[in-house]
Design goal:
By secondary structure, this protein is an alpha/beta fold. Helices cover 26% and strands 20% of the residues. The longest helix has 13 residues, at 82-94.
Length: 262
């Protein structure tokens, strides 16, 4: 069947193993020092591992593949204990994989496994946040997609770079209103964009050459969004300055869940 499934660029992979730890389904293993997809039917294609790869070596592609087998995956996960069960159930829930989630819950019921307490709860506490009030835009900005925005675009100079995950703008109306005119909004997706390996250097150039005063990254509360935070951290290493960086996490309902300095 044709479906979404991960692709690993072995030339970019440094064998760190972060993707292996982020894949409770067991679809990825280290082989000869490189991460490899060892079982198509264990990979759900939701891309939790994408945001965990510091080298940008993992992407999601659509190709011919064996179908994903949720029941077989649950057999593996259930044997690893309650913590892994919770991790997997949350993974399915956060990505809206309702059919597979129901299949996983049915498997637990059939096998007599008690449903883990609190598996639907968020695994981090919310933090208080005071937001800047909305203000009308004083300068036209276009484009906004990171791979299209020039590193020396005039609307970057003297403003915060508000780097938002693509999904954020659809769950929260007015993402740019988080900072108003003090910020330039740029969007990206670490899971689907093809230019992700180039993004860290581009963000660094936006600060060093474009005059951006710092970076605020806005992500959803899903694992694949973590890649944006890693890109900002890499950009800081590449930059000639220790620019300030902040991470805002939105819930799937568009509320601000947390805010912290990176």
């Amino acid at each position: 069947m044709i479906r979404d499934i991960i692709e690993i660029d072995e030339d970019l992979c440094d064998g760190c193993g972060d993707c292996v730890r982020s894949c409770p389904e067991g679809a990825i293993q280290l082989v000869d020092g490189k991460a490899r997809l060892v079982a198509d039917d264990y990979c759900d294609g939701l891309g939790a591992c994408v945001g965990e790869c510091p080298q940008g070596a993992i992407s999601v592609e659509r190709r011919e593949s064996e179908p994903y087998d949720e029941r077989m995956v649950m057999e593996t996960i259930a044997a690893q204990g309650e913590e892994m069960i919770i991790l997997h159930l949350r993974h399915l829930k956060e990505h809206g994989a309702d059919e597979w989630l129901q299949e996983a819950l049915s498997y637990l019921e059939e096998k007599g496994h008690p449903l883990p307490q609190g598996w639907e709860e968020a695994d981090s506490e919310s933090a208080c946040l005071t937001l800047h009030p909305p203000s009308p835009a004083s300068e036209t900005q276009w484009p906004i997609q990171l791979h299209l925005v020039p590193a020396r675009a005039p609307y970057l100079n003297g403003r915060e770079l508000l780097l938002a995950a693509n999904c954020a703008g659809f769950v929260r109306s007015g993402v740019k209103d988080l900072y108003g005119d003090a910020a330039t909004l740029v969007t990206a997706c670490p899971k689907l964009d093809r230019d992700v390996p180039l993004y860290a250097q581009k963000i660094a150039d936006m600060v060093d050459g474009g005059g951006a005063t710092g970076v605020t990254v806005v992500t959803m509360e899903v694992p694949c969004c973590k890649g944006l935070v890693r890109l900002v951290q890499q950009a800081r290493d590449l930059s000639g300055s220790e620019f300030p960086a902040t991470h805002i996490v939105l819930t799937r309902q568009g509320d601000v869940k947390s805010m912290e300095r990176i």
